[in-house]
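Reminder to self: tokens first, then the designed residues, so the page reads top to bottom the way the pipeline ran.
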């Protein structure tokens, strides 16, 4: 008994799985990453600001290109070198600000920044951030506080894209092999 060769439409099915599944995964991941950057709280420094911080690690990002209250700010990377910041806990004790162990940078959605400082906050509350130039006057800069670039979103996009390929490639290969392996029927005389 001979089986029919699969329709060439299965090539289109494989392509649709790859394009629609992979494309939507990438679109979703990038959209979440951009939203993570846009949703960070931004503060102009030098100056003092009260921050509502959750318990845990908090990252302060220096933004070269940013927007606060409809005003665009652009500064050079060298400007941040002359800035000193302190973070005071609700009980008046100083919270240690340190350089991040891993550099995190982004250039998405009209914002361009990099991790500048991290603080380990013991308890949620209102903390006082004070920043000043070592030799005033200096440029006004933007510090953004939050998760920043959501690595988890990008990982989910990559996994979704890979899953689409994991399904599309076998459909393509099975169709290709089955269509090529069919020998035309022989005619009896």
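Designed residues (189 positions):
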């Amino acid at each position: 008994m001979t089986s029919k060769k699969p329709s060439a439409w299965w090539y289109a099915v494989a392509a649709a799985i790859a394009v629609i599944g992979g494309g939507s995964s990438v679109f979703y991941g990038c959209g979440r990453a951009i939203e993570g950057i846009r949703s960070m709280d931004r503060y102009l420094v030098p100056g003092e600001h009260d921050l509502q911080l959750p318990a845990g690690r908090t990252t302060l990002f220096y933004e070269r290109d940013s927007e606060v209250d409809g005003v665009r700010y652009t500064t050079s990377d060298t400007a941040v070198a002359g800035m000193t910041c302190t973070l005071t806990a609700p009980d008046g004790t100083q919270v240690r600000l340190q350089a991040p162990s891993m550099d995190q940078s982004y250039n998405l959605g009209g914002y361009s920044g990099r991790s500048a400082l991290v603080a380990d906050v013991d308890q949620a509350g209102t903390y006082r951030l004070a920043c000043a130039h070592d030799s005033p006057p200096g440029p006004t800069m933007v510090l953004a506080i939050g998760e920043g670039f959501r690595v988890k979103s990008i990982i989910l996009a990559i996994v979704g894209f890979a899953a689409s390929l994991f399904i599309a490639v076998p459909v393509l290969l099975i169709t290709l092999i089955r269509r090529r392996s069919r020998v035309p029927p022989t005619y009896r005389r």
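The chain has a mean pLDDT of 83.
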